[in-house]
Amino acid sequence: xxxxxxxxxxxxxxxxxxxxxxxxSGVSSETDSSKAAGRTIVDISGTEMEIxxxxxxxxxxxxxxxxxxxxxxxxxxxxxxxxxxxxxPWMFKIAPKLANAAFAFDMSGTKINTEELLKADPDIVFxxxxxxxLAQATTLGIPVIQVTDGGTVEGLKEEIRLTGFVLxxxxxxxxxxxxxxxxxxxxxxxxRVSDIKPEDKPTVLHIANLDPLAVDGTDNxxxxxxxxxGGVNVVDFAGMNKEVSIEQVMQWDPDIIIIGRILSNTSTxxxxxxxxxxxxxxxxxxxSGLTAVKERxxxxxxxxxxxxxxxxxxxxLQFQWAAKLLYPELFSDIDMVKEIKYYFNTFAHYSIxxxxxxxxxxxxxxxxxx
Length: 370
Known about the structure:
The protein is an alpha/beta fold. It has helices spanning 63-71, 89-94, 114-120, 134-137, 153-167, 169-193, 221-228, 246-252, 276-282, 291-294, 315-326, 336-348, 354-361, and strands at residues 2-7, 11-16, 39-42, 48-51, 58-60, 78-81, 102-103, 124-128, 144-147, 203-210, 213-215, 232-233, 242-243, 256-259, 298-300. The chain has two domains: 2-179, Rossmann fold; 196-361, Rossmann fold (3-Layer(aba) Sandwich), CATH 3.40.50.1980. It is 34% helix and 16% strand. The strands form three sheets. Strands 10, 11, 12, 13, 14 and 15 form a six-stranded mixed sheet that branches.
């Protein structure tokens, strides 16, 4: 018996029981005849289950986790989903077969359409850890793998490794390459901002929502990319999407405001309506006294297959984008269009155009009718 170990704040043991199964890829080199033998894994919840040696069809009830599957080149394996093209158009651009997937979960992933799910006949089901519909899913005779974003950079990396391991040899290879790229780019950014004194670093407010006004605090991956990019999060309490008053924001008086993208505000026609968020800030006299507003340093976050600023494998693009935003001269050599193209070509095996890369940077949707 060979073992792979993954850590998500706890020890996750993956048992590989197939003879001839690689401990580095977790996938048998044998043909479909080995599929019935399967692999035994233990997911993040501690649940042990057997999954096929070769995974060809995936149901995913976690919208954010689709992005992990797609990033690793497994997007066209998704045969049951809870995502629509209007909500996440870039998913359908990068993984076009997603348009044929059964809509087997509600948008939140808390309810299952069992008829649609069984019709899709997936080899495995990915679901968010502890979601309400989990008990229902486990009665259908399909392996259910619980996943979580972990809320930290290390949690993200281990989630990527596990997802790649489950999907297959090529996807696991992409997962390993992704983690290496993330570590290398993070080290580059960190090396350049390491000598900047704390008092010289710009203060950053990351807004999760404008109405009601909600912000992102500490102890999460958003705080991690702000720090990594050389900024200081002005929010002094933990949590994400926490409601605050404009008076509190005035007290913080951030140097830079970044408006996040919990949900896509774009349409599949390739246009964007999300710039109204910046208009709301500049057009509201309550915000006019803020340093960030007076210096015109209010930005909307870039967007892609999922929201770059939270839960996304595109986090590796997020902290590079943020570093350029905070220190444009220090990171003038980083070309974000080139980084986006490298990212999708290398890991997702998708060739993205310069035009589409620029659309991601400005929060626009792709034209799915091209």
